[in-house]
Amino acid sequence: MKIEQLYTKCLAEATYYVESEGEVVIIDPLRETAPYIAMANADNARIKYIFLTHFHADFVSGHVDLARETGATIVYGPSATANFDFHVGQDNEEFKIGAITLKLLHTPGHTLESSSFLLFDEAGKEQCLFSGDALFIGDVGRPDLAVSSLVTKEELAAKLYHSLRDVIVKLPDNIIIYPNHGKGSACGKNMSNETFDTLGNQKKVNYALNPKLSKEEFVEQVLDGLTVPPQYFPKNAMMNKVVNTPISEILTKGLTAITAEHYQHYLAIKDVLFLDVRSPEEFTTKHIINSVFIGLDGTFSPWVGELIENINQRIILITPVGREEEAITRLSRIGYDNVLGYIKGGVDTWEKEGLKVNKLNTIVVNDNKLLDESCSFLDVRRIGEFNENSLKYTKHLPLSHIYLADKELDKNRAQYVYCAGGYRSVIAISILNRLGFNKLINIEGGFSEIKSSSKIPLKECRRNCPTCACSD
Ligand SMILES: [Fe+2]
Prior knowledge:
This protein has 472 residues and is an alpha/beta fold. The protein folds into 3 domains: 2-235, Metallo-beta-lactamase, Chain A, CATH 3.60.15.10; 246-358, 3-Layer(aba) Sandwich (Oxidized Rhodanese, domain 1); 361-470, Rhodanese-like domain (Oxidized Rhodanese, domain 1, 3-Layer(aba) Sandwich). The chain is globular, with a radius of gyration of 24 Å.
């Protein structure tokens, strides 16, 4: 028996590969299919099942493609409906994978069909639970994503309470919990850094498993402090219930190299977004005018999903050489399937054709005497980061709210923009430039550099609003 956790940090998502005696089950696969098929081939095994713990909202799974390419059977939990062929698993139904067995345990709460899979080894002993979003390490899945006319978030939270109390905590303490997400995922609010743990330890440290919590207290705590889900979540949840464009077609189209003689043709296409996925430094030095920066070496997919509202947006990529396929794949993982191609030769070739490029104004905290408390600052970090520590005089507009800039910011005022380390501030400026804010200066290294400077006073913000100008 082989169990592998394939953890994708960008999405804070865990897919599982389980093999026994030449048979494989893939649990909660991402959009691409090639890695799973390659793993099975390396083990001289065949993928027999694809288990989905629930209809995911935070990524588009490739289960339909994977089933088509391998002949595997897709399994969802009770009450699931979708417009492709799959097996509706029943509570306590057992599935044989070689010499081991996986038992479906219906654990609704995060969604109605949510199910966990309990693995019994060759000797029939419980080894681990693939808990989906029913139980995370340090947290549980938020119950407000699958709300409908049939069920409220309070009712889903109550179902989650029973799934945990009546099913999961009754399993042996020594089994390993393998969740679908880790820290940073918007499917929960307080996950730990660990990506697996024993059930026994989670009973000690996970607030949601505290036996003293009444159902009412549990519901209140689980629903408390939930932020608005990213705008792409309901779109991804819908995509997971239908047949989407095969990943092979998305890659073929996206891997079109757009050469200099075709630049004008693509420029003439309406509503094309030039998306620059290089490093913040490269974008700062030179970029195609009006392009948006969201770098691959950061939380790329979630920021794309948060900031590019149209999931069908036509996109032309500016990528580091050799990372074109990675960029297209990572976009498709959240349903952005409409990449028309990438600029061959990048920004330099573009410039050689006489087309417009731009650079960002930047400032280094400690090298520049002009940066002091008389300057006007814009903090684009999250509210929690801002409340923890901020500049004494600064405007706050989190990157997730950047489109409120027209209401919140003055186009005629020069502002020094910062985040924690210099990734989000460059995203923010690239978007603000497109909105006509042209007097922005990026603070290199962000707040971590500012903190080390004595020139600009810090203070703790006492307010608790998403857009506040702390002037007191
Ligand atoms: Fe989820």
